[in-house]
């Protein structure tokens, strides 16, 4: 994912182009800036727009980061969960201009540009970690969804990552599946439970006795993992 640097603040951003878009829009998300643009808008025009919108982007980004209340600090040795396993955070400066997250065995190493001020570390590290977790979640959850859907003999329309504060997943009447990206931190059995739960809604869009029987059909021990999520869900955060 590309990054903007505005007054020592690294802001990850993604660019989306489509003939359906009629104008350029900038949207501040939890972990990145999203740029949507028509296909006929040149890279030069986008660059010029970003330059003119720098003040708005930075102000909106910082306001959004404040709402998320990041931890007071990140430090070496801090533990973060990934698929139920603890990864140890290691922070290291490097000469490149980009902030990068790299898993190395049981270590989650964050490389920070040498010229990034210490006071800018917290929001930048948090944004980088969220971005990394989301990248992993897109691949792992999609694979698990496809496998479980085949096993349960159901089909869904689309899969999207979400950042709900109180929900781990949802299934719409249009057969769209949404999964909270933070679930990638939980053990595989918990992830499978959430996925089976949502896929079961493709058959029963409620929480009836029949719904829970279908969940149990594909995960007999689901109550154990549902309890794990209730007891430990608050730990699934960065």
TrEMBL record:
Q: What range(s) does the YgjP-like metallopeptidase domain occupy?
A: 22-232
Pfam families registered for this protein in UniProt: YgjP-like
**In the record, what terms sit under GO molecular function?**
hydrolase activity
Provide this UniProt record's keywords sorted from A to Z.
Answer: Hydrolase
Specify the superkingdom. Answer: Bacteria
**Can you name this protein?**
Putative metal-dependent hydrolase
Taxonomic lineage from the root: Bacteria, Bacillati, Bacillota, Clostridia, Eubacteriales
């Amino acid at each position: 994912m590309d990054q903007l640097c505005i007054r020592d603040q690294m802001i990850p951003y993604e660019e989306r182009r489509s003939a359906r878009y009629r104008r350029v829009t900038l949207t501040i998300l939890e972990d990145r800036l999203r740029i949507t643009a028509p296909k006929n808008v040149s890279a030069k025009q986008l660059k010029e727009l970003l330059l003119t919108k720098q003040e708005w982007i930075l102000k909106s980004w910082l306001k959004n980061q404040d709402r998320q209340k990041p931890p007071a600090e990140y430090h070496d040795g801090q533990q973060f969960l990934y698929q139920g396993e603890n990864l140890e955070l290691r922070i290291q400066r490097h000469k490149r201009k980009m902030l990068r997250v790299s898993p190395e065995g049981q270590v989650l190493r964050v490389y920070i540009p040498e010229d990034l001020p210490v006071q800018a570390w917290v929001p930048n590290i948090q944004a980088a970690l969220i971005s990394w977790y989301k990248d992993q979640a897109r691949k792992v959850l999609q694979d698990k969804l496809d496998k479980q859907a085949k096993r349960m003999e159901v089909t869904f329309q689309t899969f999207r990552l979400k950042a709900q504060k109180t929900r781990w997943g949802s299934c719409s009447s249009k057969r769209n599946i949404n999964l909270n990206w933070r679930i990638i931190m939980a053990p595989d059995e918990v992830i499978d439970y959430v996925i089976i739960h949502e896929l079961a809604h493709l058959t029963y869009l409620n929480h009836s006795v029949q719904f829970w029987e279908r969940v149990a059909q594909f995960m007999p021990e689901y109550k154990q993992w549902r309890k794990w999520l209730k007891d430990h869900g608050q730990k699934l955060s960065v």
